[in-house]
Amino acid sequence: MGNLIRLLLVVLACLHVEATLAHRAGSNCTTISKRREWANMADADKKAYIAAEQCLFKSPQKLNKMPGAKTRWDEFVSLHQIHALQIHSTGQFLPYHRYFLNVHQALLAECGYTGGLPWWDETKDAGKFSKAKVFDKILGFGGSGQGSKNCVADGPYANLQVNIGQGFQTNPRCVNRKLTDSLSSSCSAKDVATAISGKDYDAAWLAIYMGPHLYGHMALAMMDGDSITSSGDPLFMMHHGFVDKMWWDWQSKDLAKRLTDMGGPNAQDPAVGFIEFGGGTESQSKMWGKPTAAMLAVTPDPTAGDNGNITTLNHVLSSLGIIPDATVRDVMDIKGGYLCYEYV
Ligand SMILES: [Cu+2]
What we know:
By secondary structure, this protein is mostly helical. The chain has 2 domains: about 1-30; about 35-344, di-copper center containing domain from catechol oxidase (Orthogonal Bundle). About 40% of the residues lie in helices and about 5% in strands. The protein has 12 helices and 6 strands. A hairpin with an 8-residue loop joins strand 4 (about 315) and strand 5. Helix 3 runs antiparallel to helix 4, helix 4 crosses helix 8 (about 235-250) and helix 6 (about 190-195) runs antiparallel to helix 7 (about 200-220). The chain is globular, with a radius of gyration of 21 Å. The termini are far apart. The relative contact order is 0.16.
């Protein structure tokens, strides 16, 4: 190859990199929101975040369409309940929960919190969750629950009520959780490294879902360990910040490919249901009940935007009016413009 051609190729390659970077920076992502680990957040920021969360528990519902919702917090929990059978054990698990974090950010803003979302680096507390700073009773989420219902008895969420759950029911209950340190050992840095070693999205979402995501849930047993409404415990958002960061860290290993790599089913297979339990939705309904007619009436089409049963970049992500709908494409890049944040 002649030197001139070689030079031309180098110039073209540089131009391409520059164009890619220009696209990445995105004209709409100039002020990057910083998502800090809870342990590294300033006390004043922790207090502001907690105050906004408490405010959501005390604000009345606004949408007038979420079955059983009495408060703004209930509406947020209901959103997860209504989507439960399409956003777990499916390819849209990661993009939907990234969008769900963004919905949470918008709700916190309604209560005056405009800082970055905190997250919990569970790798640092693996095997000893109960010692983690997130469970501080003043500058944290309170500890493991107490009594026969495992109600969180100390901290800012003691004595607060959630009216959504268990499962597809809508009954009042306390914010509750039960910590099991031994299960938390599967949220270690080694486990995370394994979870994000998949070669394509199909491998990655499943490994993250069945790995530290699932073990974190089992170790915390938030809201009776109920997969459908565990979002009722504010701690859920800290765990899912950790899960979202896992996806981003996987994407960051090969951004050129992984900003567009999507797949997996867009709804659960009724014969399997939640893959971590097996047995199918029919047998799982004994534990959790079934979506009521009122819930089904507001449940979005799980295939919306996809033209089939596989999750695509055109898949529609809905919050039923809390914030405008988005697409999976919108949430692929955390600095793409629709989203603008980083984990620090
Ligand atoms: Cu979920």
